[in-house]
Design brief:
Order of helices and strands: EHEHEEEEEHH
Shape: globular
Structural class: alpha/beta
């Protein structure tokens, strides 16, 4: 379903890093979006995620919108940088939450 497609994983803990590492088997690129400037995952898990060439960390950011969910597909996400409040976008074909609390965010509930 997501083979050779860019994906986004939201979170910075062990679960998010593990999910991002697993998805590299299928995805062309995995964006690991985290609201802080470093991961909360244990050192080994963080090292594995950050040294994987298919994983690109997106620091100090939060997902504000999932694009085209009304069409029953995901074509991208809108992100907001926490430090300067500017919005950016990423073209992705799927999104995954490394932490269930992220799935409770209104942006994810609108897309579900």
């Amino acid at each position: 379903m997501f083979r050779n497609q860019p994906l986004v994983v939201v979170g910075g803990g062990d679960s998010a890093c593990e999910e991002a590492i697993y998805l590299t088997r299928f995805a062309s690129k995995v964006f690991l979006v985290h609201r802080r400037d470093k991961l909360r995952a244990c050192k080994i898990m963080a090292h594995r995620a950050l040294t994987d060439p298919k994983i690109t960390p997106v620091w100090d950011s939060a997902v504000t919108e999932i694009l085209d969910v009304k069409l029953d597909k995901v074509t991208g996400v809108r992100l907001k940088k926490s430090q300067d409040r500017r919005g950016i976008g990423a073209a992705v074909r799927g999104r995954f939450c490394g932490d269930w609390s992220h799935a409770q965010h209104p942006a994810f509930q609108r897309g579900a």
